[in-house]
Write a structure and sequence with these properties.
By secondary structure, the protein is mainly alpha-helical. The protein has helices at residues 3-6, 13-17, 40-50, 55-65, 70-88, and strands at 20-21, 26-28, 35-37. The chain has a three-stranded antiparallel beta sheet, with helices on one face.
């Protein structure tokens, strides 16, 4: 999938910026009161999104930091962004 294919799955930048993320992966949205947990990869993606890193940049960083096949990375990133969008509304 290209970055353009995944862009519609992204929550708004403001909803990403407001998240409080602990080093253990606990994520709290003070606006909605919702909380959820993410793994190490999820933490990396959320922090990159908070820094407004591009999807291509996030892909490259994940490929560097984690041993993952390109197809797996694409699938997992797509699923994570979809879940994130559902969590944040």
């Amino acid at each position: 999938m290209s970055a353009k294919d995944l862009e519609p799955m992204l929550p708004s930048a403001s909803s990403i910026r407001r998240l409080a993320i602990s080093e253990s992966g606990f994520v709290f949205d003070p606006y909605s009161g919702r909380s959820f947990t993410v793994n190490e990869t999820g933490i990396a993606v959320l922090k990159a999104l908070q820094q407004e890193q591009s999807l291509d940049g996030i892909r490259a960083q994940l490929a560097t930091d984690f041993e993952v096949a390109p197809q797996t990375l694409e699938r997992d990133l797509s699923e994570f962004l979809g879940s994130l969008r559902n969590q944040l509304g």
